[in-house]
Design brief:
By secondary structure, this protein is an alpha+beta fold. Helix content is 34%, strand content 27%. The protein is built from 15 helices and 22 strands. Strands 13-12-9-10-11-14-21-19 form an eight-stranded antiparallel β-sheet, with helices on both faces. Helix 4 runs antiparallel to helix 5, helix 7 packs across helix 8 and helix 12 packs antiparallel against helix 13. The longest helix has 19 residues. The mean pLDDT is 95.
Length: 452
């Protein structure tokens, strides 16, 4: 057996993604270090890692976002690499730079990649120069209300106000008139400043009935870059993804090739390294437009893994270690279907988190069923972090088979003591419009209420 690519990887995250990275490292013969807040002392990632270091109190700002504490934990444990997971510091260019300064490998793209794609207006400029289709809009932040109004008049309402430093479905506000723009601009800008540390906003034409389709890319440090097909993330609530699938039910080979080519053009333009996701809106005529690039592993990466047979976390680790891609574009064949449902601890009727103690827990099983979760019977779901407690993923030969398998798996999934969105997912999968793939990003707000 060859020597491991790294001696020890510290996972700067929590929950299911921390477990996901620990398992990949174990299979690769790499030791792992978990970091945790005082509230997460009994979490599975703490129990399963080879070592664990407490980095602060429950508030993320004082623990999982505390760069000094995380780098100190890496230093005292002798970790030679850090995997940031998703969320928290995963798209923090300063963190990536500090890892490099400390001679610790950041398992992700370069700091330059994160900076270039993290600023949404800069990313739009790069996309335009690379020949990637864009919706009409500004290529830099507007200076204030008057410029926003002027640009909106040029573009035509409705438009979207977007946070230049936003991402993950946040920092987005749809505007239908000048009066609405004038009355909301300062509030939306202030919200962006509070959420992202940057109040800058830009203006973009609103695509009214789109599908949200993203291309998964995999790149190494030697200029090799491939597309691993697409994921359809159209089922959203308040711009937050709930259910994802691969391939997209609206996809044909011509569209897939065109979107993949556009995504790789963007990657070539910035000399992208590691995994990444290029997100697009696709209109009713199958025209597609660049939205943003996420420079990290995505929550929904398992559906791509299921249809390609690739372990994306292992590929991240290999790429960060300087290894050449072991697979070619011509070898990527997508001939099956996978669906993922995000299982949240929430009261779906009130759209409110549901923290508390899990009093009974039973996972579904069977061929083609996968659960990525970090909770267990008697686990206390905490109020400090994201409400997602796991992901249910199924894999089958066709979309119809995958829907049937997911419905069965949801029926078997038991979580008691807290409220979850399992019943909400059942409602989605039982709807005719979902089965026929006849919906857009407004599906949940417009269609499901008819079935309540």
């Amino acid at each position: 057996m060859s020597a491991p690519l790294f001696r020890k990887v510290l996972i700067a995250n929590r929950g299911e993604i921390a477990l996901r990275v620990i398992r990949a490292c174990r299979e690769m013969g790499i030791s792992t270090v978990a970091v945790y807040s005082t509230a997460d002392e009994h979490s599975l990632h703490v129990k399963l890692a080879d070592e664990a270091v407490c980095i602060g109190p429950p508030r993320a700002k004082l623990s999982y976002l505390n760069i000094a504490s995380i780098l100190s934990a890496a230093d005292i444990t002798g970790a030679d690499a850090i995997h940031p997971g998703y969320g928290f510091l995963s798209e923090n260019a300063e963190f990536a730079k500090l890892c490099q300064a400390c001679k610790i490998t950041f398992i992700g793209p370069s700091a330059a990649n994160i900076e270039e794609m993290g600023d949404k207006t800069r990313a739009r400029r790069i996309a335009r120069e690379a020949g990637v289709p864009l919706l009409p809009g500004t290529l830099s932040a507007v200076s204030g209300i008057e410029e926003a109004v002027e640009e909106a008049e040029k573009i035509g309402y409705p438009i979207i106000l977007k946070a230049a430093a936003g991402g993950g479905g946040k920092g987005i506000h749809v505007v239908y008139s000048e009066d609405q723009l004038r009355s909301s601009f300062e509030r939306v800008s202030s919200e962006a400043g509070a959420a992202f540390g940057n109040p800058a906003m830009y203006v973009e034409k609103y695509c009214e009935h789109p599908r949200h389709v993203e291309i998964q890319v995999l790149c190494d440090k030697h200029g090799n870059r491939i597309s691993l097909g697409e994921r359809d993330c159209t089922i959203q609530r308040r711009h937050q993804k709930m259910l994802e699938e691969s391939p997209s039910p609206i996809m044909d080979q011509k569209l897939r090739e065109s979107m993949s080519k556009a995504a790789l053009k963007l990657c070539h333009a910035v000399k992208y390294e590691n995994v990444g996701t290029v997100e697009f809106l696709v209109d009713e005529k199958k025209n597609f437009y660049f939205m943003e690039m996420n420079t990290r592993i995505q929550v929904e990466h398992p559906v791509t893994e299921m249809v390609t047979g690739l372990d994306l976390v292992k590929e991240q680790i290999r790429a960060a270690a300087g290894k050449t891609l072991k697979i070619k574009q011509s070898e990527i064949k997508i001939i099956s279907h996978s669906i993922e449902c995000r299982i949240n601890a929430e009261d779906s009727e009130r759209l409110a988190p549901s923290p508390g103690t899990i009093t009974a827990y039973h996972l579904p099983g069977g061929m083609g069923v996968r659960v990525d979760s970090f909770v267990y019977d008697q686990y206390k779901v905490l109020p400090y972090y994201d409400s997602m407690i796991g992901k249910l993923i199924v894999h089958a030969p066709t979309r119809a088979d995958a829907i049937a398998k997911m419905r069965q798996a949801l029926d078997e999934f038991v979580v008691e003591g807290i409220k979850t969105n399992i019943a909400f997912h059942k409602k989605i999968l039982s709807s005719k419009k979902f089965r026929e793939a006849s919906y857009d990003t407004h599906f949940l707000e417009e269609f499901l209420p008819k079935y309540e």
